[in-house]
Amino acid sequence: MVRVRLEGVSKKYGSFLAVDKSSFEVDDKEFFIILGPSGCGKSTTLNIIAGLEEPAEGKIYFDEQVVNDIPPEKRDIAMVFQSFALYPNLSVNENIAFPLKIRKRPKEEVRRKVQEAAEKLRIAHLLPKRPYQLSGGERQRVALARAIVREPKLFLLDEPLSNIDAKLRVHMRAELIALQKDLKITTIYVTHDQVEAMTMADRVLVMNQGKIAQMGKPLDVFRKPANLFVAGFIGTPPMNFFPCTMKTSGGKTVLGDTYFSVTLDPARARTVSEKAPNSELVLGVRPQHLSISTSKMDGDSFAAEIFAVEPLGTETIVDIKLGDNVYKAVTSANFSSAIREKVWVQIDPNGMQIFDKKTEMAVA
Question: What does DSSP assign to residue 72?
Fold first, then answer.
């Protein structure tokens, strides 16, 4: 297998900077996911690693070898695209065998490896069929079998589940995790779907506008987002952002604005003062950390108005209106309320993230 390292890699298309001085390392046998919105540079980064794109500057290492000048076919990689890219005139058997045949492997080895890959992905019964006779999920399995059959040292996947239906995506996520752990192949996976990143990755790298926004274990990125972009991009429903300022009065330090206030403990207040003195702030709170009641609660709570109620069966998402802004809260499945009804809202102090509004960076 292989360890992959990028050092100061950039890529331009005319005046557009698609990747801006990216540096990161992927460990041997790791399932590494590059996550971000469309146009953030994640697929370009993957293509640079594959050798399909040439960087404007920077170096790509496989272990300790610089591979910038090594063509794609000699990098010992296998790539799976969202379009599957199967040959329509070939059978499933012939599609899977293709990488081995062009390398002129012995017929018996080709037959054995195709059979093994097909059985591993549970598509042995499909070997005689053509791609047009298969479902989207079956075509995806064929593309994966074709990628693993030659036992590459690096596995690259570009949005491989985006063209199959939602129910099958859930199943395929689990299959890909199990397959990667079984094969022990270093895997770099690109997606815009933060659920895929949270559920599949050993580590995740979040990109925005060609830059690395944050990198770490999925739960660490979720619990401690480094900036407003990451905080808003990861999490379903997305994090709520309350514009606010910090004030000290009567021995208490509070965050708030015209419509709400929440008390800060002294340690956190000191941290915010040091990192964002005299600055406008943004309080980030995930919907799961907002409590709603039809009666006033003990401690810091504030009045709001019900804007919409979204029952999901296992839970209810409640949209509350505070001034001109609408925020989301997740509450119990049996919550019931009328539109425009007054409710009381409370913020869990353990679930607060505080950001500097100017720099957009987390300060506490």
Answer: G
Burial class (CB in 10 A: 0-12, 13-18, 19+), 207: buried
pLDDT digits (tens, 9 = 90+) for 89-141: 999 999 999 989 988 899 999 999 999 999 888 899 999 999 999 988 888 88
What pLDDT does 51 receive? 96
Query: Cβ neighbours of residue 195 under 8 Å, at least 6 residues apart?
Result: 236
Residue 139 sits at φ, ψ, to 5 deg, of -65, -35
Indicate the CATH number of 240-356 among 2.40.50.140, 1.10.340.30, 3.40.50.1440, 1.10.1040.10. 2.40.50.140
How many residues appear in the chain? 364
Cis peptide before 237 (omega within 30 of 0): yes
Q: Which CATH architecture has domain 4-228?
A: 3-Layer(aba) Sandwich (3.40)
- Please give the Cα distance from 138 to 123 (Å, whole number): 7
What pTM was computed for the model?
A: 0.91
